[in-house]
Amino acid sequence: MGKEIDLLVNYPKTKRNLEERVASKTEADRAIARQFGFDFFDGDRNHGYGGFHYFARFWQPVIPTFQEYWGLNKNSSILDVGCAKGFMMHDLAQLIPGITVKGIDISKYAIENTIEDMKPHVQVANATKLPFEDQSFDVVISINSIHNLERDECGKALQEIERVSRKGSFITVDAYRNGEEKKRMYAWNLTAKTIMSVDEWVQFFEEVGYTGDYFWFIP
């Protein structure tokens, strides 16, 4: 199996008002967010991002970590599962000229509003059935996406990531290490349908045969 490693260590940390967010989130907000449409990406902040725009400061510091870890170059290929508007893909292509990047997302809205240079490389698809042949990519990355599926579907998505990757993969998922983090996570969460403890996730990876690397999102 892979290992726990924070490949997003250089992703800028945002200052969050946890108490304010927790107090303001309702089940109605979650229902709207889980449609992954305009409201989630570019609507009211109670329903998601409150405006999902490209800023180089987010992913450009992360790409060198990916590049060094997997030895990425112009001959490499990467799939982004849950690519949203393609911002990470754009920065991969900018910083590693010639690299092959592809992306899928469940959101038709996100794909239709993908950053311009990545539009030819993205498509609407479900992570439980990736539209690619076995071992199509050197590396598959999925950041804060597969936990938005029910547990059984989440397992299928992990198996699909395993199937289409040749060399490696990396995912991040919502998790917790103790009771306080669990309480905070469930109050904070807008979209995730599968949330487990760190130990439960590791056991789940073993059960479904996921051998890639992983890390946690803990607010």
Q: Uncertain segments of ≥5 residues (pLDDT<50)?
A: none
* Helix proportion range: 25-40%
What is the approximate shape? globular
The total tally of domains equals 1
Number of helices: 10
What does the model show?
- By secondary structure, this protein is α/β, with parallel strands linked by helices.
- The protein has a single domain, classed as Rossmann fold.
- 37% of the residues lie in helices and 18% in strands.
- It is built from 10 helices and 7 strands.
- Strands 1, 2, 3, 4, 5, 6 and 7 form a 7-stranded parallel β-sheet that branches.
- Helix 7 links the parallel strand 2 and strand 3.
- The longest helix is centred in the last third of the chain and has 14 residues.
- It is globular and about 45 Å long.
- It starts with 17 loop residues before the first helix and ends with a strand.
- The mean pLDDT is 93.
